[in-house]
Design goal:
Elements lengths: L20 E9 L8 E9 L6 E10 L5 E14 L24 H5 L8 E9 L3 E9 L3 E11 L8 E9 L2 E9 L9 E10 L2
Length: 202
Amino acid sequence: MPIEIPTDLTPELVPLSWLIGEWEGRGRLGSGDEDSEHFLQHVSFTHNGLPYLQYRAESWLTDDEGTRLRPLTVETGFWALERKQLDADGGPGLVPADIVPVLKSADEVEALRNKDGGFDISVSISHPGGISELYYGQIKGPQIQLTTDMVMRGSHSKDYSAATRIFGLVDGNLLWRWDVATGGETGKGLEAHASAFLHKVS
């Protein structure tokens, strides 16, 4: 399936352009074995002319047939190429960016390629319960690998110390896996948390 790049996309979002749109599908909690619970997820990646994608994922527990049983959770965030912030960039807060994108051409974006031929990216994701994640990773073609650099927890949040996520585009479908370390046990490493297979709905 060919990837369509929106004509109004700021140049540095082109490597992320295959994510843009609405995705929906089913997944399994945990390792996906026979006893793992099922869920339905709707994911959106949108852009507003600034050099990042806005992300939202809403999930519901379902029965084996996919019938919604109850809400599961919502997460929101921002995805962008990882680069030094310049004076022309917006922020902090409401400080406006220059009208012209900081990176104005494909050549300027290409200069950001890493030694593996991909692009370094940063992703921030917030969850209910006072938890926010900051991921760093790489996007290389239609594949993304992310690892938490920091997990921020509120004073009453549940234990959660680290995570990895992988995303891939396979035959036009978005596949992802999420592994987490709760930190509740000394030395406890990453364990399978969830995975899903999503198809594009718009």
